[in-house]
Amino acid sequence: MSIVDSTTLAKFYQCSENAPLDCRKPIETTEKIPGARFCLECGFPTTLPVLTELRSSLGAYRISELLGFRGIGRLYRGTQIGNGQSVVVKEYLLPKQYFNAVEAQQRRTALSQVVKGNLTIQKGREFRLVTPFDTIAEQSSDRLYLIFSGEIAALPTLKQVLTERSFCAPQVRQVLNRILQSLHFLHTQPSSFTSEATVTAHGNIGLDSLVISDNGYVYVCDLAFWEQLFVPAPPQMLSQQQDLIDLGAVAFALWTSRGIHSGSEVSLNPREVQHWPQDDPPLKDFLLHLLGLETPFNSAAEARQALSELPQPKTVASFQGNLSPKPPAKKKFRYWLLCLLTLPLIGGLLWLLLLPRFESNFDTEVTGFKQLLPSFADINGIQPGQYPYTGEALGTWTIILDKKPVSDRKIREFLTQPKLDTAAIFNYRTYAPQQSSFNEVLKANAKANFAIASLSTQLPEGLIKETIAYDGLLVYVPAYKSQNLPSTLQGKIALTQLQQIFTGQLTNWKQLGENFPDLPIKPYRPMETEALRLFQQKVLGNDPSLIAQFNKIEQRSSFDTLRSIAVGEKQAQRTEAGSISFGLLTQTWDQCKIYPLAIAKKNLKPVQPLLKETTNGTMRPISPSDNLCREKKNLLLNISAFHTETYPLSTPLIVAYPRDNNLPGNVSGPLFANFLKTQDGQYFLQQTGLVPLQAVPKNHTLSSSIWNR
Predict the structure, then answer these.
(1) Of these four, 279, 368, 450, 689, which has the most CB atoms within 10 Å of its CB?
(2) For residue 614, how many other CB atoms are within 10 A of its CB?
(3) Which residues of 17-136 form beta strands (DSSP E)?
(4) DSSP string, 605-626
(5) pLDDT at 608 over 80
């Protein structure tokens, strides 16, 4: 997922083109006033004149022409003075508008480490990774440079090349195979770019971070480690799992080819069943796993192995196609014949190609929210009738229906008859099925057309799921300042520690380290079966022996635990100070007397599920020093972390309905999901503590058809 965007700079300059890096005005300024350093119109730094010389401790370089820009920097072609070898120079800027002196110096220092952390590729092996061999980061300059040898870094990007071609399923398979090879190499490298114990990941996959040669080789450029240095925001955690998800996103967009080739503004979403092509079911199943919508792969190597073992659909028997674009009017790329000769090599190309387009579909952008139908009144196709459905008795949906997020009326009242002009009645009942509410749908579809629940178990055969939001668990400790567990824990806890605590292996906080208080750990299991199943899956790995120990932990309802922590605080500090528990989002996310802990999975950085809005309008993870009661109106769930499941305790909330079109739920299930996926439906769900499919704008108001009921 691309983390840099050239339009970021437009926020700080009054550029008439709203794109300073791609604007002609800075060039025109230097043509009118030789030697000018800033654009006459907006003050943006001008381009480097031809013959400008740049010097570092390793050599000197002369600029010969401006190539354009890529990502968040300008590109120049040049030569190395002394040996005449071709180089490509990428220029980064440190505008004083958003980098103070300390921040600028930090970035100069970090950039100077890039070459020292270069990836070492075995002789004779080609993994198509473009890394610089020199840096220039002068202490007093607001311009910094990376130097790349040869011409590879100057090749056209996938964004430039792949706007005229669509791709069939066999071609997508070829792409996946080659890019997974590149990812496997990258992910198995030591983390040499930084002294911190972090994984090596690309982190910035997108159309602009891949380039393609005439013979179809695709090269991976612009790793996040150096690109995000010039984004005015805290560095993002790099995740190998996110690289796999992003590759899945690219493959999905590549396969559907919507928008880029058709010019359509209608976006596609891999969570929508009807948006998938139907010509290669095994590939679809593979991509669902790669995207993390089904059980994710643990590594690029595992994914590549699974890809190689996919059965071949009938339509894959013969694979002859052209992955290359038509030559532009002014530039002739010889792709036609080369494509057929180098099909396996072109795989690299598409990997990172369509990610930015996918981001508008898959990420929680406000622009995506605006594309949703406004309200329940806009949903058509529902006929009058009775449509019973079910869910967990103490589960998320039961809690939601009784909430009153926008008035004194429960959500149940709005959803029982979503359209007042149609007598379609959706009655919710909870049953006591032997296994789960999903099984109830299959056993008695006349009594329960469909079910709504968190996907904590494998969906039974015969059901189709439709995601309507994201749910999960918060693990929390009391926010008491006297005992101050949040600060002692540094606001985080590892999954392994949770497992040890909730199976009785750790009984005193002192066992976690010498800085911890000598305080008994008091874990509490909630009563809600949906929360228990999620915990058993996400933390205990559904291990029967661990679950047996887990079942010995004292149990009380989330309501009682939260009340015990909040009521009579002085007394509670004596009895609840060492407590730790977990609960469903809808019960815990807005409780300010507790502190939700960031969760760390294996060797990855901990992910905080709750964000706080800062005074400048940006969002940052909460910290133990925050007064959550005072900041309550500025808190928001970490939407991206739940969507990508980088927050380990997240899960989709789904509508599950029968695949059999002879059963009533096959029609009523997806229609009810459509009500919930309107702007009003997503707003309702967000207000109750769920994570919406699309970020809801702050200024969103419910439609008149809701208010006038």
Answers:
(1) 450
(2) 10
(3) 53-55, 60-70, 73-80, 86-93, 134-136
(4) PPB-SEEEE-TTS-EEE--TTS
(5) yes
DSSP letters of 677-699? TSHHHHHHHHHTTPBPSSPPPTT
Distance CA 357, CA 643 (A): 17
Catalogue the E-assigned strands of 327-412: 385-386, 389-391
Q: Which of 674, 655, 474, 651 is nearest to 580 (CA)?
A: 474
Do the Cβ atoms of 659 and 462 come closer than 8 Å? yes
Q: How far apart are CA 312 and CA 316, in angstroms?
A: 6
Roughly what angle, to the nearest 10 degrees, separates helices 300-308 and 169-187?
Answer: 150
Handedness of CA 29, 30, 36, 39 (dihedral sign): positive
Determine phi and psi for 565, rounding to 5 degrees: -75, -40
Contact in structure between 377 and 682 (CB atoms under 8 Å): no
Dump the DSSP string for 37-52.
-B-TTT-PBPPPPTT-
Helix (H) or strand (E) holding 211: strand 210-212
* For the chain, domain boundaries: 48-154, 158-258+277-309
Specify the CATH superfamily of domain 158-258+277-309: Transferase(Phosphotransferase) domain 1 (1.10.510.10)
The pLDDT value given to residue 367: 63
User: What interhelical angle do 169-187 and 343-351 show, nearest 10?
Assistant: 70
Residue 359 corresponds to which amino acid? E
Give the pLDDT of residue 621: 94
Between residues 499 and 455, the one the model is more confident about: 499
Query: What predicted TM-score, i.e. pTM, was given to this entire model?
Result: 0.52
Residue 352 in this model has a pLDDT that exceeds 50: no
Residue 543: count other Cβ atoms within 10 Å of its Cβ: 14
Instruction: State residue 654 phi and psi, 5-degree precision.
Output: -125, 155
Confidence of residue 57 (pLDDT cuts 50, 70, 90): confident
Asked if pLDDT for residue 320 goes beyond 60, the answer is: no
pLDDT of residue 122: 47
Please state, in angstroms and rounded to a whole number, the distance separating the CA atoms of residues 636 and 612. Answer: 6
Q: Tokens 């015969």: give the residue.
A: 462
Q: Are strands 492-494 and 598-600 parallel, antiparallel or unpaired?
A: parallel
Query: Measured between alpha carbons, how far is 308 from 306 in angstroms, rounded to an integer?
Result: 5
Measured CA distances, 601 to 495, 498, 597, 606, 645 (Å): 6, 11, 13, 7, 11
Residue 347 pLDDT: 42
Give all strands of the β-sheet with 635-637 in edge-to-edge order. 619-621, 610-613, 635-637
Closest CA to 1 of 244, 267, 261: 244
Q: Are 426 and 683 in contact (CB under 8 A)?
A: no
